[in-house]
User: Fold this.
Amino acid sequence: MRVCLGPGGIGSDYESNFRRFKDAGLGCAEVTFTHAIYMNSNKIAKTVGAAAKKFKIDLSVHCPYYINLVSADKSKIAASKKRILTSAERGHYLGAKYIVFHAGYYGKLTRLQAYEGIKKAIKDMQDVIKDSKWKVMLAPELMGRDSSFGTIDELYQLHKDTKCAACFDFAHLKAAYRGKVNWKYVFDMMKKFKFKPLTAHMSGIEWGPKGEKRHVLTPEKDIQEVLQWVKKYRFGIRIINESPDTFGDAVKTLKMYNKL
Ligand SMILES: [Zn+2]
Assistant:
């Protein structure tokens, strides 16, 4: 299947969850280290990865939220890199290709300064990943708040300069553009990224004057909108649902995809 769907979060009862995902026709899932890297060892990651493989669930990893690669406080940059690299290490043992993270905040920096800082941090981390022989790709995420680094143009530039991957968050896009997304532009840009499959997030979203407020259940019209573009561009893409019901909404998306 060209489009692979799955939930964010694998739960503690991961083996029976992977079975449940597979039985529902889902083919991927994201391991969420968003609040903590809860796997304390590579051995645990390897066990979870083997279970995922058994049920043909393609995993990715979401790093902790507490990351800012361009903080004014250097120690926070170091701590951010460490969180991403530990996630990347676990990701390698999980068999996960993409290591997704929110790269940082512009703060008092210009957009260009933030870009340069994040580019440098990504290159530094890629050196460690390469030396460690971890088979993963860093994937900074497309963000939905005005204060957060990560427009599609910034991600594409990063991809060109560092060969990193990217995570396309369709809900964040809606928040960033306050519901008025130029989907043709976005999908034309996505087409230019040279890694496969593409990886993305989906959910419903509420926004305010500064952009994203919260993720909500995925409305059918949002799913329909994205799926039509995905179909039109014939992308090989994995789409992880991040709504309050990640499994239910991933299954709903699959049902809609099958009817397209
Ligand atoms: Zn995210």
